Amino acid sequence: MKSQKKIFTRALSLSLAAIMLLSGCKENVVENGNIPQEVEEQNDTTTTTTTAAETTTTTTTTSATTTTTTEATTTTEATTTTEETTTAVQTAAATVQQTAAPAAEGNSTQAATTTKKKTTKVTTAKVHVSGYRGGNSYPEIKHDLEYMRELNSDFIGWLTVEDTPIDVPVVQATDNKFYLEHDFYGRYDETKVGTTFADWHIPVTEDGGPDNLVIYGHNIRTGVGLAKITNYYPARYGSLDFYLQHPTIEYESVFGGESTYVVFAGMYVNTQTKHGDVFNYYKFRDFGSKSTFYQYFEAVFDRSVFYNPAIDIAYDDDFITVSTCYYPMGMAVDTRFVIFARRLREGESAKIDVSGAYVNKSPLYFDYYYTVNGGSWAGRKWDKSMIKGYSKWLKEQEGE
Asked: Coil, strand or helix: which one is 296?
């Protein structure tokens, strides 16, 4: 199992064979420019085609090892994919062999070490055609799920952070590019404001969706879009006040109704290997095993800029990840701010205890951040009880 963890970490590191395909947002409209655009996996067995990966600069923890990766050019959208790998061993196999297609399901060695949480639907990337049905009329956008779904079949839900401009429709295309630069009505948007959208890989349908719904949106200088997500970053305003006032977000699905999600982590991350650590946060939409789940979220907690010990997460929870671009170190340093939230459990109060929430004074950043600001990562200090079953799992790894 120890070797499996090492393979998992190295797989995350090596999987950067192509960095993000980015939209050309105009600086006078979009403050922080671009959203990570994932290069789709292909069935070409000679090329690695995954995007951002985890690389780290320390050997003090099981999931953070020193690695070297090579930044490569991007490839085109609209390529065919097979089912993504969701386990540590499968991810490692696909990457170490430099194979674009994910490792085959059903390998006896892999099956012995993992248990799939659920089956991921196979999807095929293709050039997206807008689901808008209104022709040349452009009626008002309003928070009415049935109405919005009738207007545009791509509409899947509505995201809200109370008392903020984040009160927006969410769409899902058959790629991660279309809504970067098209509005809800399917019109090309010269300003590149785009539309808030969910990652395409696991379609949201009446039969279900991903364990972790990843939502992208531009950071608009005027404050619309997902700009206010960056207010969760304590370093931006010098306090944790925004989190204390907004510990929950609301997401209403056209298929699943309205749900409250409690925010439990937020991180400022880099997308370019030349600047150091690149964490592949948006690749984990389904968790194929508990080991994958624990390794992913220990990496999230290492990087989180705040903690709330009153909130824990578990393997069977449903999650939303909200990502927007954020350039406090300048446009040349391509970075994101990301928040993580889990769905409130049955019977759990929506009144969240934030009295014990605190700023993480030493989150794991990337090399360039430390070069500019000084300092270094102080190591893993967070309360392990915030991930249910994590301490037991760690002991099991140590015993093998």
From this structure: helix
Which residues does 347 contact at the CB level (< 8 Å), separation at least 6?
Answer: none
| Structure letter (DSSP) for residue 389 | T
pTM for this entry:
0.75
Helix (H) or strand (E) holding 94: helix 88-96
Distance CA 144, CA 297 (A): 34
**Phi, psi angle pair for 265, to nearest 5°:** -160, 155
Task: Give the residue, 55 or 391, on which the prediction is more confident.
Answer: 391
Compute the average pLDDT of residues 338-342: 98
What digits encode the pLDDT tens for the residues 217-259? 999 888 888 999 999 999 998 999 999 999 999 999 999 889 9
Q: For residue 339, what are the β-bridge partners? A: 266, 322
DSSP string, 109-144: HHHHH---SSPPPP---------B--TT--PPP-S-
Dist CA 229 CA 180 (whole Å): 17
16 φ/ψ angles, rounded to the nearest 5 degrees = -85, 80
Q: What is the DSSP letter of 153?
A: T
Contacts of 118 (CB under 8 A, 6+ apart): 208, 211, 286
Res 28: pLDDT: 31
Reported as a single tens digit per residue, the pLDDT across 133-171 is 999 999 999 999 999 999 999 999 999 999 999 999 999
- As a whole number, mean pLDDT of residues 268-295 equals 96
What is residue 223's predicted lDDT score, i.e. its pLDDT?
85
State how far the Cα of 253 lies from the Cα of 205, in Å rounded to an integer.
10
* Bridge partners (DSSP) listed for residue 253: 157, 257
